[in-house]
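Q&A log
Question type: sequence-to-structure
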Amino acid sequence: MTTTRRHIISGLAASTAALTLPWPARAQEASDAATEVPQEQGRIHIYVGAPGASKLPLALPRPIGGSAQAGEFYSVVHRDLDLSGWFDIIDEAAYIEAGGTGVRPGEFRFEDWDVPGAVALGKSLLRDQGGRIRAEAWVYDVAGRRKLGAKAFTADATALRSLAHKVANEIVFRVTGQNAPFATRFAISGTFSGNKEIYVVDFDGHGLTRITKNGTINLQPAWSPGGNKLAFTSYASGNPDCYVADLAGGRITRLSARNGINSGPCWSPDGTRLALTLAPNGDPDVYVLDSRTGEVMTRLTRSAGIDVSPSFSPDGRQIAFVSDRSGGAQVYVANVDGSDVRRVTFQGTHNTDPSWSPKGDRLAFVSRSSVFDVFTVRLDGTGLLRITQGMRDNEDPCWSPDGNYIACASTRTGSSHIWMSTADGTHQVQLTQGKGGYTNPSWSPVLGW
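Response status: OK
Response body:
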């Protein structure tokens, strides 16, 4: 088992304390408005494929419009696009177009962007409007001399970063036809207070927000499909119990407090069920619970060994889990009623932490040799792909909502941070910064707040 799973199963005691949920005011911000500007020309894209393998040369001039926040806005857009793996952003020193040149067709020369070798061009306008900000994204195919699309967004001035994420996503979408994960967050178990507490952090590592404050051990957060709840394991009452935090309502409730462990929750795609490891008789097995009442609906496993770490398939019909029934920790898949159990991993003797891809075709998991590394594999056990190697410990993989990326907790720079890789492993970047302590990442769905 990984460090986290060993910690849960060991049943370490922790002092009892109350859970609190100081959800930030930023979650209550007014919704951003988005409009097409001007009339769409049809959804035309110039790049088809996946991020990471080959990067498209993109010119990204600084926004016009005179906003005092243009510098910060540009930095967020630039970093998002750089993190995405879709683009090779051309150095500004190579631009020959004068700063402040317009963003609309006819206000600039495509020929000026041939010189630095741009294939795509992302222009933007940022304007202050009495406590609110208007941002426009204009995206062009340089070689084809055509507009790919344009959209305007407005938001409160305090939501600048959110606005920048939307513009960056618009650039990715217009060029590739795919959405980027910039409007997502991670739930994590963090050690920033000296104890393991649950936090939420923006995709790019900003906006760290504390969810629990009980001074004990809180682990394994999992987002609900709607992005408004977190299930997690906590020792707040002295036992590893399963709690659910309602992020919008500001409430935390204990869902399962059965004798022994109540660990590793995973939501079904429709949000009505939670898969969980329980050990009422001392033998850990995977159960499916009603996510509202905590009542047991199904017992998935009945082997004499340890069965832990459930992960629902995208269609809700299957569950991946880890079992030592074959003598070492391996990943298995079963139907949600416990039938048709199949072994998925066969190489190595310690394979844990399965995470189902949104497309349903692969599982990410962790395998240990001298260190922990992330792999993916097809459901029939073929197509094994190594994502990390020679990068110290890499644990708790999770997929982006679009299936293009895998994030994990990695110690490759010393302390534990969230790192993101493209699904093929070719492009890997560090998302969080600072002193570290980010573990158990869970990737949210696309969020509207």
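Response note: The helical segments are 3-10, 70-84, 111-114, 160-176.
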